[in-house]
Amino acid sequence: MSNKRGRDISSRLTEDEINGLVLRLQELLPSDSSSSCISIKDCKGDMQLHQELQKEVDDLSDRLSQLLASGDITALDADIIRRLLQQ
């Protein structure tokens, strides 16, 4: 699954690798406008938030898989899950 592969890569990044990626990103951004300047702190915060959200998605996916596999699901639950997945 492509999400799993991306998740594996993001969980293996070290602090030094993140710093290196942020520095490379800053080099690619135009430096003539202060509004387009991104600080390392902001990038790190964004990456950390992304990793936390990805972990939540993974946890919810695991819980949903367990629920569906258990068979302990009502017709109402199935309908709610179906509607959520269609969004």
Automatic annotation (TrEMBL):
GO terms for molecular function: protein dimerization activity. Signal peptide: none annotated. GO terms for biological process: regulation of DNA-templated transcription; regulation of growth. This is Transcription factor ILI6. It comes from Sesamum angolense. The lineage of its organism: Eukaryota, Viridiplantae, Streptophyta, Embryophyta, Tracheophyta.
